[in-house]
Design a protein that fits this description.
By secondary structure, the chain is of the alpha+beta class. It has ten helices and 23 strands.
Length: 518
């Protein structure tokens, strides 16, 4: 039996090699070729191993397909150190043209996917709309593989639709493919992506440096499943490469410095079929758990010559290269702080919003989705300066050239002195006493600025005007000015006794160097 096994191993080897190469070449219309160093078959155990596989596209054939407007959008290049197939029956392939494999192990593969936005198809008759089974049917009646495992894979995605060919790379990626089935019945199963029931991918400890080298991106863990239609990130971090003041001095003009962390990000009900076919991301919900975003700006630097209106939410969303439509974005237990350094006081002032919870509806830049609804609705609750209950509702016009939006909200009761962390260094005003009962505001805005009204109910308000001492660099009290401010300008309560509630109308014209958060 050993002698027969050895004989059959050598007998089947050239037949299988020729059949594999022929099937790949013919089923892809000559676009792909496969080569390998050695193939070993054990007819007793039904195991097969292949070493040093190279799966490469023929660039000449691909360019001809592009000229004929029938080229696929994705091109694949694969190199595999070792491929192991278990429980395969070679005689079923040879006599019955049926390929059945219990499991496939692919060790240390290197996968490169290139995307080209081939949209110049002029003659639909030239398109090959055959299914995978229809392409393979002259050679195989069916293919059934229980599990396919990619171990320690290196993955690279090159997007040639972007001006510079954006490259995304991942290392030590593990992928498990479940129930690959290609036959006459499953070819029309719409639940199968690439003829599989599920493609599960995960990686750990991802780290990369941004193109400008100013930030490091870290991901603790990533998971995604096509069957369960989700993608999840844990431990996402955006880490600046230098401190706040050091960062600002890297540039000639004012530039926002960001520091961010999110404990968990999950995207649910992803249409992976649409994402793969048309590069459109449709999902029901994006959930952000325990996010923390800090923004810092050094006002001592010259004003930016760049118009920061380009980064208003609607405009930034329109520049996002992937057509995206997310029904609901949920924010849970998050925090936002915005800080500025004031050269007059030589101190930093900070406004904070903690315990942020809320949702954004209809976050999209997808043209088909915008036809149905061009507005994104936002409702958030938070603690202003970690104390006062803050509620805000906004409506963003996603198609407005000027990034128009509406807003209204209110702030609950809090000690007015909590605002000193912001206004003391930024406005050189100290609130000595005061209690805010509630504040109501509403208005409209765009890249040009905001207009609206504000009503503030408060009592026992007293302030002190400050100035910086050139000798000690401390902030000192302006005594006489403070007295006159409290007597003649500042009213200690609203409403005043026997008077109606005072209401303020505001109009702020945005300088081009001011950001949306500012």
């Amino acid at each position: 039996m050993t002698g027969i096994a050895v004989y059959l191993n050598y007998y089947w080897k050239p037949i299988l090699s020729a059949r594999i190469k022929e099937a790949i070449y013919t089923s892809t219309d000559g676009l792909y070729r496969i080569n390998f160093d050695n193939i070993r078959v054990n007819v007793i155990t039904g195991n097969l191993s292949v070493t040093n596989i190279e799966f490469t596209p023929d660039t000449l054939i691909y360019e001809k397909m592009r000229a004929d407007s029938i080229a696929p959008r994705h091109i694949y290049k694969v190199a595999v150190a070792m491929l192991v197939l278990k429980r395969i029956r070679p005689w079923k392939i040879y006599f019955n043209r049926i390929l059945e494999i219990k499991s496939v192990l692919i060790d240390k593969p290197v996968l490169q996917i290139s995307f080209n936005k081939n949209t110049n198809i002029t003659d639909s008759l030239k398109e090959d709309n055959r299914t995978a089974w229809q392409r393979l049917s002259p050679y195989l009646k069916s293919i059934k593989i229980g599990d396919i495992a990619f171990r320690n894979a290196n993955f690279q995605y090159i997007d040639h639709s972007s001006p510079k060919g954006k490259v995304t790379g991942l290392q030590r990626l593990n992928i498990k493919i479940t129930d690959l089935l290609i036959d006459s019945v499953s070819q029309y199963d719409r639940s199968r992506l690439y003829s599989t029931k599920d493609i599960y991918a995960e990686f750990h400890s991802y780290k990369a440096i941004t193109a400008d080298s100013n930030y490091t991106i870290q991901v603790q863990e990533f998971q995604a499943s096509t069957a369960k239609r989700y993608a999840r990130l844990k431990g996402l971090r955006l880490i600046p490469g230098s401190g706040e003041m050091e960062f600002s001095k890297l540039f000639k003009y004012q530039k926002d410095r960001y520091s961010a962390s999110i404990e968990e990000v999950q995207l649910n009900n992803i249409d992976y079929m649409l994402l793969n076919r048309d590069r459109r991301l449709l999902a029901s919900a994006l959930v952000l758990e325990k996010g923390n975003l800090s923004i810092f700006l050094n006002r001592a630097m010259p004003d930016s010559i760049r118009d920061k209106g380009l980064n208003f939410p609607q405009r930034a969303l329109r520049r996002f290269q992937l057509d995206t439509s997310i029904d609901t974005v949920l924010l849970r237990d998050s925090r936002l702080s915005y800080s500025e350094y004031n050269p007059d006081s030589r101190r930093k002032g900070t406004v904070t919003f903690s315990k942020i919870n809320g949702r954004i509806l209809n976050l999209t830049n997808d043209s088909l989705s915008l036809i149905k609804n061009r507005f994104a609705d936002l409702k958030l609750t938070a603690l202003l300066m970690d104390r006062g209950r803050f509620n805000v509702a906004m409506k963003l016009d996603l198609e407005s050239p000027g990034a128009a939006f509406e807003f209204k909200g209110n702030v609950g009761n809090m000690d007015a002195g909590m605002f000193n962390a912001a206004i003391r260094p930024l406005s050189l005003i100290l609130i000595r006493t005061g209690f805010l009962e509630r504040m109501i505001f509403e208005g409209t805005g765009s890249i040009k600025g905001v207009i609206g009204s504000l009503t503030c109910y408060y009592n026992d308000l007293k302030i002190t005007l400050l100035e910086r001492s050139e000798e000690t660099n401390w902030l000192k009290r302006r005594g006489i000015a403070s007295i006159f401010a409290n007597m003649l300008i500042i009213r200690g309560e609203n409403p005043s006794p026997g008077q109606p509630v005072r209401k303020a109308n505001f109009r702020y014209i945005r300088p081009q160097h001011s950001s949306f958060f500012n």
